[in-house]
């Protein structure tokens, strides 16, 4: 493959190598790689890349709608392997973040008894711990999986990159399937580890007697929209590749998740925070039971991804 738009910051001049290795790390060019800021991509105008781009159209920016919807990608074995990686990564991420936020079901909310009010109760301290946990865990998962699948690990991100024309339809479908399966596997393990399905998890619990579903949907939509815009800004914007780089960008994406999850979690009684990751709540419900409001955890991210995609189309980061 020729015509990489950016060199990896880990590339070195062969002239200074003491010993040349016969094998090199394999990183497939991919526009929708979280934390990569579109730094390992191909030049679509280079004729040497034409054959590869017919097979992997999302290896270069400015993918056409025709290429995005080309179903030829379903025959790409690498894409299936990456979907398996997404499944495994999502399974582990969903399990550990759900386990860290799980509590026995039907526990009454704490009553503030100090001048600090809610900030001295588990209604705030629980989400605070969860926010730091999400930040650190997502950062580490991005570092671990980004070089393989792009480290989406979240249908919200996969949908957002699809509507922004950063990934193809086959990649979206296979990644979503892997993430949903990974969430389900995590839910079964969560049930086994907890000893029963009688638990609730922050980000996936809503008391509809206190918070109407339509209002919870608005919260889910706007929080997902914030998550998408900020994640794209620090993790997928090619204009920032020289600013953040692959070393800092995953930390910032993890911080986005932590801050948004904390900011949405404690303000309103009966609302446990935005889901932000439909596969996570899907897995939680597989291990416990499905509530009637689970649809908002999917429709909210889809609506946010479409809204972001429209803005991304109007103000693209690449100059054609």
Automatic annotation (TrEMBL):
Coiled coil: none annotated. The chain crosses the membrane at residues 79-102, 122-143, 172-190, 216-236, 243-266, 295-315. Pfam families: MIP. It is a multi-pass membrane protein. Keywords: Membrane, Transmembrane, Transmembrane helix, Transport. It is found in: Membrane. GO terms for cellular component: membrane. One of its GO terms (molecular function) is channel activity. SUPFAM superfamilies: Aquaporin-like. Belongs to the MIP/aquaporin (TC 1.A.8) family. This is Aquaporin. It comes from Aspergillus brasiliensis.
């Amino acid at each position: 493959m020729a015509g990489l738009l950016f060199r990896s910051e880990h590339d070195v001049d062969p002239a200074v190598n003491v010993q040349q290795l016969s094998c090199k790390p394999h990183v497939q060019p991919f526009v929708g790689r979280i934390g990569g800021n579109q730094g390992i991509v191909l030049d679509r105008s280079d004729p040497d890349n034409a054959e590869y781009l017919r097979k992997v159209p999302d290896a270069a920016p400015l993918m056409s709608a025709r290429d995005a919807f080309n179903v030829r990608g379903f025959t790409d074995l690498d894409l299936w392997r990456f979907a398996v990686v997404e499944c495994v990564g999502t399974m582990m991420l969903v399990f550990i973040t759900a386990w860290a936020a799980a509590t026995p079901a039907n526990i009454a909310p704490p009553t503030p008894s100090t001048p600090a009010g809610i900030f001295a109760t588990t209604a705030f301290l629980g989400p605070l711990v969860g926010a730091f946990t999400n930040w650190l865990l997502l950062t580490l998962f991005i570092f671990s999986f980004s070089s393989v699948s792009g480290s989406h690990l979240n249908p919200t991100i996969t949908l957002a990159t699809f509507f922004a024309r950063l990934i193809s339809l086959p990649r979206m479908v296979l990644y979503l399937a892997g993430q949903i399966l990974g969430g389900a596997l995590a839910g079964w393990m969560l049930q086994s580890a907890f000893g029963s399905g009688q638990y609730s998890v922050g980000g996936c619990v809503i008391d509809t007697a206190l918070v109407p579903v339509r209002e919870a949907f608005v919260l889910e939509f706007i929080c997902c929209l914030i998550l998408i815009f900020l994640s794209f800004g620090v993790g997928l914007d090619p204009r920032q590749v020289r600013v953040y780089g692959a070393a800092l960008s995953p930390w910032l994406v993890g911080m986005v998740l932590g801050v948004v999850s904390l900011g949405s979690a404690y303000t309103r009684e009966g609302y446990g925070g935005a889901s932000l990751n439909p596969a996570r709540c899907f897995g939680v419900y597989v291990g416990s039971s499905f509530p009637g409001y689970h649809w908002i955890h999917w429709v909210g991210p889809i609506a946010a991804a479409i809204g972001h995609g429209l803005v991304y189309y109007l103000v693209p980061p690449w100059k054609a």
